Amino acid sequence: MNLLFDFTVDKTTKTIYITREFAADLDLVWDAFTKPEMLDQWMGPKPWRVQTKEMDFREGGRWWYAMVSPENVEHYSLVEYIKIQPKTSFSTKNTFADENGNSKGNAFSLVKNSFQEGTGITTVHVEKVFDDLSTLEMMATNGFKEGTAVGYNNLDEFLRTLVTNK
Amino acid sequence: MRRDIFQAIADPTRRAILVLVAVQAMTPSAIAEHFDITRQSISKHLRILSECDLLAQKQDGREIFYELKIDKMKEIDVWLDQFRKIMDENFQQLDQLLFTIKNNKK
Q1: Given an 8 Å threshold on Cβ–Cβ distance, is B75 in contact with A158?
Q2: Domain spanning B5-68: which CATH class is it, in words?
Q3: Which of A30, A71, A116, A147 is deepest in the core (most CB within 10 A)?
C-alpha cells in the first residue's frame, strides 16, 4: 500500500508540516502516539532507540524520555502536554532535558498532532513550530552531533548535501 | 588556489577529517591523534580542505583550531533533510508495529 508522506518547511514562520497516513484505525494510531510502551517501539532512528522515563498523558502532564545511542549514552527530552482532545489532537511543548528530567535551556518547539480517521486509514498531521531561528540552528547543530555520532553511514549523505549546496 | 570540492572529498582521510570537525573545532594535533599517519600529511589534507573552502581557521591563544565552514542556513537545510529522513524512518517503524498488532488480533 502506498501511504502518503508529506514534509514541508516554512522558514519564515519557522514551521515544519508533516502529513502521514497509517494503515490502521484511529484508536490504534492514537495509542501509538500516546502510550509509552508503543512509543518506545517505533520512535528513534536506528540504531538509536527511545526509552520512556516517565509518562503522564494528561493536560499539564509530561513525557520524559531518553534517546539512547548504540553506546548506551542517554540524551533526554521533555514533552509537556498542553492541550488534549481525545482521539482528535494534542499539543505539546518540547524541550531538551537533563538526567533528572529538568528542562534544559529556553529553546523549545511547539507541536500539534491531529488525527483524522478514514476508511482503514488514519491521517496524522504534525505541525512543529520553533520558538525562533536560533532554536532551529541549535537543533541543526545537535542534529549534526547526533548524525555524526550515528557513524559513517550518514557521511556520504552529508557530503552529498554539502556538495549540492555549494 | 581554489580547488574542486570533489577532489577534497575523494580522499577517505579528508572525509574523516570533515566528520571530526563537524562535531567540534579541533587543533591539528587533536585531529592527527585520530589517524595513523604523519603530522605532515595531516597538514597537507588540512591545507587542501582549506583551499576548497571547507575548513575555517580560528586562532585561540597560541593554538589554531579548524572548523567546518558552512553557513547556518545550509546547516539548517542539512538538518531539516536529516530530520525528514528520521521521521520517515520512524513512521516506517510504526507501520511495522501497527501491522504486527493487527495481525496478532486476527
Answers
A1: no
A2: mainly alpha
A3: A147
